[in-house]
Amino acid sequence: MKRLSSLMALVVLGLALTAPAVAQGIAGPRYVKKAVYVRIHWDRTFYEYWTVGRRYSVAQLNALVNGYFDRARAVYATGPMQNIDLFLLDDFDRVTGPMADYYDSNSSASDGDDRLLNAMRARLKTGNVQKTTPNGTTHLLGRTLNIVFVHANYGGLGGAADVTIPSLGTGDANAFFSTGAGQGSTVNEQRQSVVDELILHELGHIFGGQHGSRNELADCPFGGPFEIMCAGYTNLQRRFGPANTNRVGNVMKYTLQRCNSAYSSVSSCENAVSTECSRILDYTQIQPCIDANVAANCRDICTGTQKTARRVINSLTSPIGRNVVVAPGPGQNQ
Ligand SMILES: [Zn+2]
User: Fold this and answer.
1) What is the 207 CA–ligand 1 centroid distance (Å)?
2) Which fold has domain 33-258+305-314?
3) Rounded CA separation 101/99 (Å)
């Protein structure tokens, strides 16, 4: 502890000598982005296990899947998970939904997962979500993603995301999760916390997270702690490791157009930096101060269109009912 304190003192002293008053006047980046809109479906194995086997009503079953969504939404809303905004699109009847009759008597065969994902690609649409405000302006708010709850062993897997990684920017943002675990056709109920982790992990793939075949692409050191993208372990930490933070950050930047709303334009940011850096009494430090702060604070400035889209997103609640937004999928097919 003592060593740490003296180190801190040196750092503070160093800052005071080289760059006085710089930090106060320059607003750091404040990132906003588009959101991700999720539709939850179920297949026949899931519906039958919970309604016949466990005697759940449809209302209880909807509450069960909504609970899984709400917990995942809460984790992804926090810093280490990139502040990804998930909204539930609750705009169709799951009992008669497009995956409700899906049944595969040979699901545990090695290609059962591929057949399920192929059926999802064929039956479920994904694409852009838009909303037209009362003044007639249409705003692009983000992307849709479809997930299917199952209670079966599809291809030996508890869950999978579409093979296109990251799939959010394409037409196939699909993932499935099982509330069961087992060998072959024998499936037992899985613990809720393990299913929660599975959902966070598969959504991580949708957003660009990877682990490679032996976890060489993720932060999974021998003995732990393990990030959320580690495969083959449970009790994962609710965070992305450094490499996956970069991968997911790129998806946020390019697919969800993450941008900096702290300034109205690049030039107003550069002017603010220049004003603050000019206060430095050591003239040799002024230009390095400008260069460093423009690079750190003046990139990816939001356009006016991006900022108004964000205001529309902020006005939405989750779940989103019928006829609130326009999104490809069952809610728009009735
Ligand atoms: Zn994985």
Assistant:
1) 12
2) Collagenase (Catalytic Domain) (3.40.390)
3) 6
